[in-house]
Design goal:
Elements lengths: L2 H19 L5 H14 L4 E6 L2 E3 L2 E3 L4 E6 L3 E6 L6 H14 L3 E6 L9 E5 L3
Parallel strand pairs: 5-6
Antiparallel strand pairs: 1-4, 2-3, 4-5, 6-7
Helix pairs in contact: 1-2
Length: 125
């Protein structure tokens, strides 16, 4: 399964989660449901994966964590904010760069239009 196949399944799980629960919950609730649904789809999902920074060949433990890492190929960053800020998009791009992963999805569940609130981010490597 490649990143696009995984992304398709993730989007389906996001839609199902949103249409079942609706907006306004904490990020942790959406995270737990996505883990359940994606695992049911046969995917490997890791939660709150530490993301160190390597600077001048020194590994720094900084406390950054990827919300969900699916099949070690796709990062999912979950938000439940009134509005996404430009920094949220940059955050996902930086996570991709630091991890060497190609594809990330930024999703904001606190919305009236979930389709417009899923943002695909690609690492140019």
């Amino acid at each position: 399964m490649d990143e696009n196949d995984i992304s398709y399944l993730v989007r389906g799980a996001i839609f199902k989660t949103y249409h079942t629960l609706g907006p306004g919950l904490l990020e942790s609730a959406y995270e737990a449901i996505l883990i359940y649904l994606l695992t049911e789809d046969g995917l490997s999902v890791r939660r709150q994966v530490p993301l160190p920074i390597i600077f001048n060949k020194i590994k720094l433990k900084t406390g950054y964590r990827v919300d969900l890492l699916v099949n070690n190929l796709v990062i999912i960053e979950i938000k439940s904010n009134e509005m996404l800020a430009p920094v949220h998009h940059k955050q996902v791009l930086t996570y991709l760069k630091l991890s060497g992963i190609k594809l990330g999805l930024l999703v904001n569940f606190n919305t009236s239009n979930i389709a417009a609130s899923i943002h695909r981010k690609v690492n140019g490597l």
